[in-house]
Amino acid sequence: MSVIENIITEYKSIKKITTGDAGFRDLAATCVCLANVQGGKIILGVEDKEKLPPVNQKIPDDMINKTVTRLRSLCFNVSLIPNEVETHANGGEFFSITVQPSLKAVATTSDGKIYVRIGDQCHTARSEDIIRMASEKDAFQWELQLRSVLVSQVLEKNIAWFGNEIRESDRVKQFVKEMSDIEIAEHYNLVENGQLTNLGILWLGTTAQRSKLVYPLTVQYIVYDELEKKVRKEDWQDYSKNPKELLLDIEKNAVELTYYDEFPLGLFRNKIRHYDERLIRELLINAIAHKSYAISGDIFIKVFQDRLEITNPGGLPLGITKENILHKTSRRNPHLIRIFHDLKLMEGEGTGYNLIYEITSRDAKAFPVPVSDFDSTSVTQYSKILDEEAVLLIDFIAKNYHLSQKEFIVLGMVARHKKILTTALTKELQLSGEDRLYSYLGKLLDQSILISRGIKKGTEYLINPKLIVSSKINVKPTLKVIELPRLKALIEEILKITPNLSMQQIQEKLGDAPKEDVRKTVYSLVKKQVLGHSHDKTYRKYWLAKKIETK
C-alpha cells in the first residue's frame, strides 16, 4: 500500500468516523473537493504520523455502509463507491471509498459550501474558482455535444483518412484497427447515432462546418524584433484544417522556431536549437488540447528574440497550478487528448511536461513558466543556454550511462546549479516530500554520477568531480562546489592578508562561492571566536581574532 497523498488520494485516521460529527463533516468536505476536480479515493484507517494502519486494527462489518450513508447525507452531487476491507502486512485493516468526478454539476456539502483540490490539499472555492468550475464542466461536455450534421454530409475521404491514420498507429489495439472507418469514428466519439459531435466536426468536418462551431480552433503566429515590434504574422483562421493538419502546417511555417545557437566542441561546433522540435510539438499540442472551446479566442504563438510565448483560451484546469504541473494530470478535452495520443502526436496525458523538463534539462535551459488566469493560460519558454559546460557534461553522461527521464531532469538541475540542497531540489521537482526524492536520485547516487554532502535537510548534491575529470571537458574552476572546511580556510586566509572586510567584500574576493555558504561559514567562525567583528550592524567588519596555527 502506498501512503503518499496526491491530487487523487487522501488518507484519513479511523478516528474521523468514530469520534463524532466533526470528523464526518471534514470527510464530506474532502469528498466534495475530490469530486470537483477529477475524483479520487479516500483511504480510511491510516494514521498520518505512522503512515500505516494501527497494528491489528479491525474494521467492523457495518462500518463501511454506515460511513458511506452518512457521507452521502452530508454532500450533494457526489457519487461514492465503497470498497472492500483490506489488510496491511502488519495485520491492520483499512478500507477505501472511491469518489467519482462530478461531470455535470458542482459538488457541494449539505450546508452549501464548495471545495476544490489544489495539489494534495482541499481549499474553500473562491468566486473565480466557482466560475471556472462551471466553465470546466461545460468544456468537458463540449466534445460530445451533437451537431445537426449527419455522417452523410461529411466527405467520405475525411472519414477514410481518419480511419487510416488510426490503423497506422502502433499505439492502437488490433481490435480497433479491424473496425470499419465509421466504427473507428464512433469509437473515438466523433460520431454518435449518425450525427457528428463537436469533436467530429473538428476532425472530419468541412471548412463550412467547422466555421459554424461556436468557438472554432484558430491560431495566430506573431514574430517580434529586438525592440519587440511586430515583424511577421501568420494566421490559421479559415477553418480549413483538422487539428493534425493545423499542427503540421504551423511547424512548417514557424521557421523562427528552428533557429539555433552554436558553441565550440573541440574542433567542431555544437548546435542547439533555440527550441527543440519535440518541445515545440508538446507546447503546441498542450495549447490545442487544453484550450477551452467554451471561450472565444485564438491560440497565440509569439516569438521574441529571447523567448517563445504560447497562449490559449481557458485557465489551467482546476487543481493544477504552476507549482504542481509536473505531476498532475488534467481531464479537459480528454477525448481530443486521446486522439492526439493515439495518432502519436503527443506523449501520454500527464507526461508532456516531464518530456519538456527532460529536454530543457539536457539543453541546460530554464524550465517553462506557465501563467494562468480565469480565461487564458500562457507558457513562456526562454531560448538561452544557461550553462554550456552543463550541456557537454550531460551529453557525455548520456553516452555512457542509461538514465531514465526522471534522472535526466535531476541531472540537468544539478549540472546547472553546480550544487543544490535537497530542499531546493525537492521544490524544483514539485515533490510534496523529501521521501519521494530517492526515486529521482537513487540510480544517480548508486552509480556515483552524483555525490552528496551533509545530512538531512542540509544534504547537497553535485556532479562527481571524478566523472568531470574523466569526461575531459574543459570545465572552468568554480567555488560553487567548494567544501565548507576549504571555504573556512580560504576565508581565514583572506582576512589574514586583508583584515577589516565587510561580508560583501569577503564575498567579492571569493567570486562565485555560494552566498549562503559564505555567510554560514563567517557566522560559524565568529561563534568559535576565530573571527572578530565590529559592533555596527549595517557596515560590520570582520578580522582574524586569533593566530592560525601552522604545521
Strand content: 15-25%
Mean pLDDT: 87
Number of helices: 20
How would a crystallographer describe the biggest sheet? 6 strands, mixed
- Give the radius of gyration: 29 Å
Uncertain residue ranges:
1-5
Per CATH, what is the topology of the largest domain? Heat Shock Protein 90
Q: Helical residue percent?
A: 25-40%
Q: In the residues, how many domains can be counted?
A: 4
Characterise this structure.
This protein folds into four domains: 9-125, Schlafen, AAA domain (Methyltransferase, Cobalt-precorrin-4 Transmethylase, Domain 2); 126-385, Heat Shock Protein 90 (2-Layer Sandwich); 388-468, Orthogonal Bundle (Arc Repressor Mutant, subunit A), CATH 1.10.10; 484-544, Winged helix-like DNA-binding domain superfamily/Winged helix DNA-binding domain (Arc Repressor Mutant, subunit A). Mean pLDDT is 87; it is low at 1-5. It is built from 20 helices and 26 strands. Helices cover 37% and strands 21% of the residues. The chain is of the alpha+beta class.
What brief labels describe this structure?
Heat Shock Protein 90, 4 domains, six-stranded mixed β-sheet, Arc Repressor Mutant, subunit A, disordered N terminus, Methyltransferase, Cobalt-precorrin-4 Transmethylase, Domain 2, 21% strand, alpha+beta, 551 residues, five-stranded mixed β-sheet, 20 helices
